[in-house]
Amino acid sequence: MKTLFAATLASVVATGAAQAEIRIGHVYGQTGPLEAYAAQSHTGLMLGLEYATEGTMEIDGEPITVLEYDTQLDPARGRSLLAEAYGDDDVQIAVGPVSSGVALAMLPVAEEYERILIVEPAVADSITGENWNRYIFRTGRNSSQDAIANAVALGGEGVAVATLAQDYAFGRDGVAAFREALEETGATIAHEEYVPTETTDFTAAAERIFNAMGDVEAERKLLFIIWAGGGNPMGQINAMDPSRFDIEIATGGNILPALVAYRELPGLEGATYYYHEIPDNAVNDWLVETHQERYDSPPDFFTAGGMAAGIAVVEAIRAAGGADDTEALIEAMEGMSWETPKGTMTFRPEDHQALQSMYHFRTEVREGVDYGVPVLVRELGIEDMDIPIRNQ
User: Which InterPro entries match (predicted)?
Assistant: First the structure.
């Protein structure tokens, strides 16, 4: 399914000739188990374009048109739709997708058509690692950024960790990066557990983890959960009382509905990509105020990421002097820094990964709030995280 959003009502100049336009394609999984992430990402993208153009939805007098394509979380469909966007619809820059598996299928299409794909919010390291090509830029964080931030927050001598993750690129890349990052802190991985993405009953997985960790000698035992989409592994496993094995549950941040499960675990620690109360900057102030006014709710995890991508699109096109010259866009974007709801992001020239802050949090229960609130322990700046370059 493809939908068209004309970001401005102007479609012709006064002479009647067709007006030049900038065509942005948002290729993402509007339907399926990650549709909540997708909706946030699209809202954020549109807000980012609006913010960066000061509400005009134009760049240097050229109106922005956004075309939407629904991958339905199908890699083959995502690949086909991106080819359609570049080849049939003359999209100059594409943004998306939600799923890492879909993103990996889409990367060669950007290279084939020699056009920019800004990956947001798919996370797998391999997107800007072994499967990367020079037309790929990523505003979203990667698995290593998640992993290293959580390792800095949770790791240390005497800490033993078991992991539970989904059995696909997001989960396996995340655990691999987390394992590598923990080694630098003196912590150890004692057990890795992978389950299918559609898993809803975590009893067997939890028992395997408990059995593996029961006899481990450590000052602190953690079960670190890497999960996206449906299911509630944290709540189910917490109900099985892991404390009888001296195991604490830990995890990274997530969208607001998922934070409901965090309320059962006050004091839970980890590192998060975004929570609307944490960043202190003008872009985030605008996002929080605008989102609250329009949607009667605060912006969420992937709204901030979509906004970062939208602002990056505008800044890149301005710096390149237009959207038609891919080589000029690449030159402008390599090393480009821009302001986002999370503060300054920078595209690293070597792999086009956006370097950015993360946030060490501790969950707090507040009266009148139906989820566990991630309270800032400390900001983990770009300089605090040595993010590997994995495409070489």
Answer: BCAA_transport, Leu-bd, Peripla_BP_I
Residues 124 and 235 in one domain: no
Q: How far apart are CA 138 and CA 353, in angstroms?
A: 5
Cα–Cα distance between 105 and 147 in angstroms, integer? Answer: 24
CA angle 166, 169, 171 (to 5 degrees): 35
Q: How does pLDDT run across 286-317, given as a tens digit for each residue?
A: 999 999 999 999 999 999 999 999 999 999 99
Q: How much is the pTM?
A: 0.88
- Only one residue has tokens 């509905």, namely 257
Among all chains, which residue has been given the structure tokens 């029961």? 214
Residues 267 and 288 in one domain: no
What is the pLDDT confidence band of residue 3, given thresholds at 50, 70 and 90? low
Structure tokens that stand for 185 in this block: 């802190």
Would you state the structure tokens that stand for residue 344, as one six-digit string? 């300054």
Domain with residue 137: its CATH number is 3.40.50.2300
Count the alpha carbons within 13 Å of 204 in the hemisphere toward its beta carbon.
6
Domain count for the chain, please give it: 2
**Within this chain, do residues 370 and 344 fall inside the same structural domain, yes or no?**
no
Neighbour tally for 211: CB within 10 Å = 11
- Placement of tokens 């080694």 in the chain: 183
* Residue 380: CB atoms within 10 Å: 21
- Which amino acid would we find at residue 134? R
- Report how far apart, in Å, the C-alpha atoms of 192 and of each of 31, 172, 231 are: 30, 10, 19
Separation of alpha carbons 162 and 155, rounded Å: 12
Gap between the Cα atoms of 381 and 130, Å rounded: 25
Supply 371's token pair.
Answer: 């989820």
What is the rounded distance in angstroms from the CA atom of residue 202 to the CA atom of residue 236? Answer: 7
Q: In what order do the strands lie in the sheet with 343-347?
A: 337-340, 343-347, 354-355
Radius of gyration of the chain (CA): 21
